[in-house]
TrEMBL record:
It is a multi-pass membrane protein. Residues 1-165 form the Cation efflux protein transmembrane domain. NCBIfam families: CDF. It comes from Dictyobacter kobayashii. This is Zinc transporter ZitB. InterPro entries: Cation_efflux, Cation_efflux_CTD, Cation_efflux_CTD_sf, Cation_efflux_TM, Cation_efflux_TMD_sf, CDF/SLC30A. Residues 169-244 form the Cation efflux protein cytoplasmic domain.
Length: 290
């Protein structure tokens, strides 16, 4: 009973935070928050997970106390409360599950569906207590639910900290991504490759590519091909690609100069020294700047 009520309270808290974060994510970007407010959801998910860990510890501690000092329970009340919980949580859970890759809503949905399983376990425990009088089943169930909450919360903590530490998304191999970029015609090499998540399902990339021995007008074609591959294969819609000629410099720009003027009519005119900013092209809305 105690654990079921505690888990219900965590769900109410999680749902409130998730809906708050969803509203914040809709706020437009500004001069200070150029990526927008998408990471509010990540921070909220982390806060939610930490609170779940604390509540799991509390439930486990209370269960231990009830093992040592058993208290009478009311099986009928357990049946009624669990049945009501199943109906409500199924309704909420199916609504949340439609949000797809949204980390906050997905985590909230997992907790709600977890409540359904916990409620079923409560009904079974109530039946056992009613038939046998074994009241220790209630705190035993509490320990199980506490472990379930802690396990789910730990998964959320791992995922949110990966995003906040700008780790490579788990479904992307940097080595394979680099190889795929180098297979594009005109690309000699790729380095300083970084891939990270702004929020769930929003991956970004930055890299340097060597495209020596190409006339400047060919650079845009190569970059377009890279952008197309990133979007279609890795679902990376925001990438910043810096073109340069560090390798095979003698066959391209002298003294390891960089391509920085894509509109030039010759390779010589396109090269500039390190005091100039090299060209960078961002795939977002195909916007180009130099």
């Amino acid at each position: 009973m105690l654990s079921d009520a505690g888990h219900t309270l965590t769900d109410i808290f999680a749902l409130g935070l998730a809906w708050f974060a969803a509203g914040q994510a809709e706020r437009p970007s500004d001069d200070r928050k150029t990526y927008g407010y998408h990471r509010v959801g990540i921070l909220v998910a982390l806060l939610n997970a930490i609170s779940l860990i604390l509540i799991a510890i509390f439930i486990g501690w209370e269960a231990i106390q009830r093992f040592q000092h058993p208290e009478p329970v009311q099986p009928l009340i357990m049946f009624v409360s669990a049945a009501i919980g199943i109906v409500i949580n199924l309704y909420i859970g199916f609504g949340l599950s439609k949000e797809g890759d949204n980390l906050n809503m997905r985590a909230a949905a997992l907790h709600v569906f977890g409540d359904v399983g916990a409620a079923v376990a409560v009904i079974l425990a109530g039946g056992i207590i009613l038939l046998t009088g074994w009241t220790f089943v209630d705190p035993l169930l509490s320990v199980g639910i506490a472990l379930f909450i802690a396990f789910g919360a730990w998964g959320i903590i791992r995922e949110t900290t990966d995003i906040l530490l700008e780790s490579v998304p788990k479904d992307i191999s940097v080595k394979q991504l680099a190889e795929d970029i180098k297979t594009i015609d005109g690309v000699n090499d790729v380095h300083d490759l970084h891939v990270w998540c702004i929020a769930s399902g929003m991956s970004s990339l930055s890299c340097h590519v060597s495209i020596c021995n190409l006339e400047p007008e060919e650079n845009a074609r190569v970059l377009t091909n890279i952008q197309t591959m990133l979007q279609s294969t890795y679902n990376i819609s925001h990438a910043t690609i810096q073109c340069e000629c560090r390798e095979h410099a003698s066959a391209c720009c002298e003294n390891e100069s960089l391509y920085c003027r894509l509109g030039s009519n010759s390779v010589e005119e396109a090269c500039c020294d390190h005091e100039h900013q090299p060209i960078s092209i961002t795939t977002n809305n195909s916007h180009k700047h130099s």
